[in-house]
Amino acid sequence: MHMTTVRDVQAMAGDEQITMLTAYDAATANIVDEAGIDVVLVGDSMGNAVLGYDDTLPVTVDEVASRVGAVARGTDEALVVADMPFLSFGADLAESVENCGRMLKEEGANAVKLESGPHTVELTERLSDLGIPTMAHLGLTPQSVNQTGYTQQATDREEATEILELAQAHEEAGAFALVLEHVPANLAAQVTEAIDIPTIGIGAGSECDGQVLVFTDVVGLAKSSPPFAAQFGDARTEIHDAVSDYADAVRAGEFPAEEHANTESELDDLY
Ligand code: KIV
Description:
It is a single chain. By secondary structure, the chain is α/β, with parallel strands linked by helices. It has one domain (6-233): Alpha-Beta Barrel (TIM Barrel), CATH 3.20.20. The protein is 40% helix and 14% strand. It has 11 helices and 8 strands. The chain has helices spanning 6-12, 26-34, 46-49, 61-74, 93-105, 121-129, 145-148, 157-173, 185-194, 215-219, 235-251, and strands spanning 18-22, 39-42, 79-83, 111-115, 134-139, 177-181, 199-202, 210-213. The protein has an 8-stranded parallel β-barrel with strand order 1-2-3-4-5-6-7-8, surrounded by 7 helices. Helix 6 links the parallel strand 4 and strand 5. The chain binds 3-methyl-2-oxobutanoic acid (KIV). Residues 22, 41, 43-45, 83, 179, 181, 202, 212, 214 line the site of 3-methyl-2-oxobutanoic acid.
């Protein structure tokens, strides 16, 4: 067994594609890990994906912490990255460091991810100095949905230049990798060329150093998925069929069968 480090992930860039997928509990993290995914992201996408919220904004530090702990316990090899939720970072430096540090110190994460902007450059530097590896995230950052919506970002030169400059600023500040979400593929390709840390794309074309998607989209559990996601399985139908077969078996008196029960003869005349 080899535990993946941020250096391993960085060494892959340019050599082989980095695979990253979200997970939110120990059982699925275990499957994701066994399937050979390099980086497991405990995304704040848990808000929409598994917690029943409309977006990621209500997700709390406690909710992420609990899920990070579960994922870390279910993972042997992949790098576990905790996605810091809305307002858990960025307003106050000391509080941000404490929230991020908790994910490593108490929950077993190997790194954190921050939806990034000018306000996360100094924080990224501080976290790196303190031994908290930090993944940056630019382009569509769903915590800013009230400002940007969920549309493709950086479609004009000014915004694209800003993303390129922020990518360089976060690399300089010590970020070990950068997620680029829902930006034009030719911008993602140029950012990948311009910086030395790996870029991991989602809706950013094929020229990044790796790709990330949301677990429920990939396995076909999501009710709706973004246009750039792809479905590689139909878990919703599989789970639905298993659950309704179970209910049918109970109603028909077929479950539990003899092999699922145990009788003790000396208990026969209790009543
Ligand atoms: O929260 C999340 O799952 C993410 C990925 C989609 C990059 O931020």
